[in-house]
Automatic annotation (TrEMBL):
PANTHER family: SERPENTINE RECEPTOR CLASS GAMMA. This is Serpentine receptor class gamma. It is a multi-pass membrane protein. Signal peptide: none annotated. One of its GO terms (molecular function) is transmembrane signaling receptor activity. The keyword Thylakoid does not apply.
Length: 334
């Protein structure tokens, strides 16, 4: 073997090892970044789920000053939001986490598992929009009932709720059947990617945007009328209570508006093949989805009103049994 062949061999070996080290470093950084994102999302997601239980407990505690329909719809919204959040973790957020790859291997082996979970991603989107409408209309009906007799809502809201959820279930089936989703491992991104039949995906995205925009327009009208009516009424204790719960409903509406904006952006980019950085859009969509799915538990407690007062009073009583002195700043918060 010639000397320069030996040198070339050593150089090639060195260069190959250098590239391997660089690739390993890139993979490590990518993995760490994904792990950090997962931790951040869990850091507020898990407390949000726990706070939902606290909020529901508080609403039951103040049920004497709150109409039954709002409690039922809020509990339904909380349940759907939790299932949406959980399903998004199973099918969307952990696809790049190696410790969870076993689940996707099971989903690949059992098509019904991945198809059902992928279908629920779409259906929960519709169901969440239905909940936004129900909350907006419930507050509209409650505020209007201060001066008008609209008892029909209190008697028949459950029928409308079931009807809308069943209708959107049928709509989801109509835009996604046959369900042809698949999971493929991408060695470049070191993650599982969801693949759909292109025609069905385009139809599904368009229907989501149209349905979301329609819901947004209707809820906007209801909220504008409700706000105008509240401003015209003389401020009393009952009006203050209605304002508090209207703000909760309105914040949920704003969160869904933000979520719809990201979904619409994603749809436009996908349909017109604009090829943006989908990882950024996915991160934004995960965040806006959390604002809508987990957020209500937080801002229900942050907004002033009977729910926050009830929770603060219970926490205060519990801590005082152990001799804890309630700080002045916390007393003012209640």
């Amino acid at each position: 073997m010639w000397p320069w062949n030996t040198s070339l061999s050593h150089f090639t070996h060195y260069f190959t090892r250098l590239i391997d080290k660089r690739l390993h470093r890139i993979e490590s950084l990518t993995s760490n970044q994904m792990f950090t994102t997962t931790l951040i999302q869990l850091s507020y997601g898990i407390p949000g789920v726990i706070l939902y239980l606290v909020v529901i407990y508080a609403m039951i505690g103040v049920r004497r000053i709150l109409n039954k329909s709002f409690i039922v719809i809020f509990v339904l919204t909380s349940a759907i939001n939790f299932l949406t959040w959980l399903n998004s973790w199973l099918m969307l957020r952990l696809r790049a986490e190696p410790w969870f790859f076993f689940f996707y291997e099971v989903a690949l082996a059992v098509p019904v598992v991945r198809n059902v979970l992928h279908f629920l991603v779409l259906y929960f989107y519709f169901a969440q929009n239905v909940c936004v409408f129900l909350l907006s209309f419930d507050r509209f009906a409650a505020i209007q009932s201060l001066t008008k007799n609209i008892e029909w809502w209190a008697k028949h809201y459950h029928i409308l709720t079931i009807g809308l959820l069943m209708s959107t279930f049928a709509l989801s089936l109509g835009t996604r059947v046959p369900i042809d989703s698949n999971l493929l491992y991408d060695h470049n991104t070191m993650s599982y990617n969801v693949h759909y039949e292109f025609t069905h995906l385009i139809l599904s995205l368009k229907v989501q945007v149209i349905f979301g925009v329609g819901t947004l327009i209707i809820c906007s009208c209801l909220n504008i009328i409700s706000m105008r009516h509240l401003f015209l009424l003389r401020r009393t204790r009952s009006i203050s209570i209605e304002i508090s719960f209207f703000l909760i409903s309105f914040c949920i509406f704003l969160a869904q508006f933000l979520n719809l904006a990201i979904v619409t952006t994603y749809t436009i980019c996908f349909v017109y093949d604009l090829r943006p950085d989908y990882s950024i859009i996915d991160d934004l969509l995960n965040f806006t989805s959390d604002v809508f799915s987990i957020g209500p538990a937080f801002y229900t407690l942050l907004l002033p009103g009977p729910v926050r007062q009830f929770v603060v009073r219970k926490v205060k009583g519990f801590l005082e049994t152990f001799g804890f002195v309630w700080p002045t700043i916390v007393r003012s918060f209640s």
